[in-house]
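Mods, move this if it's the wrong board.
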Amino acid sequence: MAGEKGPIAMANLAETRVIRARLPLVRCAGAGAVALGALFVLCWIAAALGWASGSHMYVSLFTLAPVGSTMALAAGLCWSLGFGALGGALVALAFNALAFLER
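Not the wrong board. Structure tokens:
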């Protein structure tokens, strides 16, 4: 019949449980590396073109080379990728370690 609900549609929502998966460490590390790497490249472009006054400070976090140089881009991007991966991995580890708080 049209409009008749089957047994799946009648499930009691109070009895359902959400099982949370663990965050994958490598995927979070990769996401952190990509995010900080992209942010570094955008800040380097802005600093090299003189668009944003604060972007040179972000570039200076990762390299001592002159802000607009290609050496700053290369060295800073490597360090930014490494720290992004470390940050993403730490977020995944902390999230997984604190899973007991949800029970």
